[in-house]
Each structure stands twice: as structure tokens, then as C-alpha cells.
Amino acid sequence: LKPLPEESKSESIFIDDKTSVSVLYGQTTGLRRTDENYLPFMVGNYILGGSFESRLMQTVRKNAGLTYHIYSAHTGDLRTTGHWMLGASFAPELVKQGTETTEAVVQEWYKSGPNQEEVASAIETLTGSYQVGLSTTGRVANQVFSYVMRGLDATYIDQYPLQLNLVDSDQVTKAIQTYLDPTKFAFAQAGTLVNPTTIAPPANTRTVSVRIDTPNSGWKVAIKAVYKTDKNLVVISQLDHSGDLAAQVITTVYDSLSLEDAGDLPVKHYVVGKTWNWGNSEKYTFVEDTESLDKAMSRAELLFKDS
């Protein structure tokens, strides 16, 4: 059975003095990892909001410029039925336009589904990511363990890419329309929810952000320190894995920070913890530890440090 709520629910929480409003949509799907519709639904969700090339990112962020951070995911399907969620953050004055644009993207995705070209491209990317994720014996063991814990046989490690390549656009559209209903989404938003005309961001405030494509959803990124030198604003971030089982799906992780008196210097990013050799190479410098950076920044002005 599909345990959807009987009606939509909405909550708004006012939090004073915030530079962004966090928005979440969600719904229980009833999907488990062993269900035959799991892979079509997963592919559909990946196309909607699972990567930087997703519909949400391309429309809401790249084309409309309404947010830096928007994604969709399906989680919680280890031993119980799963749930779907969509998360985004918007400047307070852009919340209405941001949510309207987001909902329009979701409605079109739900109504018409992805086309076969999108499905084929998603499957190619997901398959490649999966193979990268099996590059060491430890990762192979971890993936087998993940499947066994979800009620699948250990041999599924070889069957997964084969079954993934059998998914077509009709299956994806059917799965989306079976397990979701946009008229019954739960919705929550939290932040400085005020009339857009009253918003007057401080002139000396600047937002810096870091965004990394990761091989699975178990990773997170956090800005650890920001320094100001004569030439650059130096942002040092840390990538960490939760250690929990995570599906091998390319996921974009994100963090942002608002700073006062940061000026308009160009930003130089350093990231600690990246172990794969693809994605984001043109914008970020990946390092093994922060020891050398800390020494280099000893004479720089410290604007932020995570305690």
C-alpha cells in the first residue's frame, strides 16, 4: 500500500535575523529498496534534483538565479518504508518566487515525466558513479553489506548496473505518479519570513558558499575557516562521510556562510577530504590536511572559524 497523507500540511517558523529561509517538501512513499519500482523512482528523482545537472538546479538556480542550494532525495528505506523530500534555501525576499518556480518544475516532472534522453543520461552517470564507488575492496565490502541489510542477495552487486540499464522513461513516469502526489506534500519553511519590501540586507554583508559533487549521499561539506588576505578571500572547507550506508548516487553537497566586512576580493577555495578524481577541479584546490594552510594564513585576517 502507498501510505500517503490524507491532505497536505504546511508549517512556517519565524526565526529572527537570518539571511536565508530553508524550505522543505516531503511525502512518505512506501517504497523499499527491494521493491521493483525502486530503481525507476530513483532514476526519476535523480533527474529532478539529484545532481548539479538536475531539472531543479538548472531551472531554479542556473536559469532563474533564485538559490544556490536545491535538491531532492529518497531516504529511510533500510528496514521501513521510505520517504521523499525536496530541500532548498532562498533569500527572504525570494521565497515566494523560489517556491513557485520550484513547484512548477516538480509539477511538470510529475505530470509528464522525464524523456528517454534524460533517463539514458542519468543511467550512464549513475552506472559510472557506481563503478567508481567499487574501486577498493573496502568499498566493495561496504556495498555488499548495504545490499544484504536491505534484504537483497550479495550477488546484487553485479546485478545492479544491469537492472539499472533496463529502466525506461515509461517506467520512471509510472513510478513517480504512483508513489508521489504533489497535492499532498507536507511543507515547512523556517527563517526570517517578512514582507519582501522591508528586507534591506546590510551593505557590508557577503555570502560565500562551497558546492561539491560526491559519489554518494553519505558525504557532507562544511566551511571551517575564512581568511582575508591582500589578494583573496580564502575559504577552507572539510568533506566528511557519515560512515552510514549510502546509495551510490552522485550527490551535490553544499554549505554557505554570511560574513561581514569581507569586501569584494576574489574567493579561493581549499577543500580537505576529497578522495575521488573527478568534479569541481576548476574551482577548488583539494588538499590532504589544513596544517600547511594554517601556517600560510598565520598573517591573514581571520574572519570566521568553526568552533
* SS-derived structural category: alpha/beta
Give me the strand/helix succession.
EEHHEEHHHHHEEEEEEEHE
Through-space gap between termini: 46 Å
Give the C-alpha Rg.
21 Å
User: What is the β-strand count?
Assistant: 12
Query: What is the makeup of the main sheet?
Result: 5 strands, mixed
The poorly predicted ranges are 196-201
With strands numbered from the N-terminus, the spatial order across the biggest sheet is 1-5-2-4-3
Number of helices: 8
Helix content: 25-40%
Taking all residues together, what is the mean pLDDT?
83
Global geometry: globular
Strand content: 25-35%
Describe the fold and architecture.
The protein is an alpha/beta fold. Helix content is 31%, strand content 29%. The chain contains eight helices and twelve strands. The protein has helices spanning 38-49, 55-63, 95-112, 116-132, 137-149, 156-164, 169-179, 291-296, and strands spanning 9-14, 21-28, 69-75, 83-90, 186-191, 205-214, 219-228, 233-241, 251-260, 267-272, 284-287, 301-305. The strands form three sheets. A five-stranded mixed sheet has the order 1-5-2-4-3. Strands 11-10-8-7-12 form a five-stranded mixed sheet, with no helix packed on it. Strand 3 and strand 4 form a beta hairpin. The model is unreliable at 196-201 (pLDDT under 50).
Could you write a compact summary of the structure shown?
This protein is an alpha/beta fold and 307 residues long. It is built from eight helices and twelve strands.
Describe this protein with a few key phrases.
307 residues, alpha/beta, five-stranded mixed sheet, 8 helices, 12 strands, globular
